[in-house]
């Protein structure tokens, strides 16, 4: 009887040990997978030029790009973080947008995130351009220019100029602000039920300025 009890206790102990080891292995695998996902997410974040350039945070909340946005300045397509001078942006950019349905309309805004200077941007944001009611698959000439284009003229430091495309709820649903300085892209989008779908930014400094923008 004692021998049988001893075997039962031993088998029970062995079962507990196997359960413990199995639980431990599952926990280790789950933690490893979670760490991999975290590293992948961090890698994606650090690779996002809008995040690296401070556009996400200073001007926009995180969003997922879902519509193509092509910005041409002097027949050159603009990529995030490229360096320009005021002489390059005297005329309004040529902008084409993607999408699928002409009955879908978009609003485009262009702002300076560093007005009047990156070290003291108390006029942030300064609105340089706004076009509403742009049909999908067309360009800004098909929209309604509600704030005419004002060419960038940075006087101090290197400024970030952001072009943002928003999807509208419908036609004639967006109302322009009354002034350009201290424009707030987030508030404007919220007040007009706009959803960001694409953005691109470039750096610009005075004509004879030197150096590049340092990422904090």
From TrEMBL:
Protein name: Flowering locus T
Record family assignment: Belongs to the phosphatidylethanolamine-binding protein family.
Record-annotated membrane-spanning stretches: 13-30
A Pfam entry, by short name: PBP
Keywords: Membrane, Transmembrane, Transmembrane helix
Source lineage: Eukaryota, Viridiplantae, Streptophyta, Embryophyta, Tracheophyta
Coiled-coil region(s): none
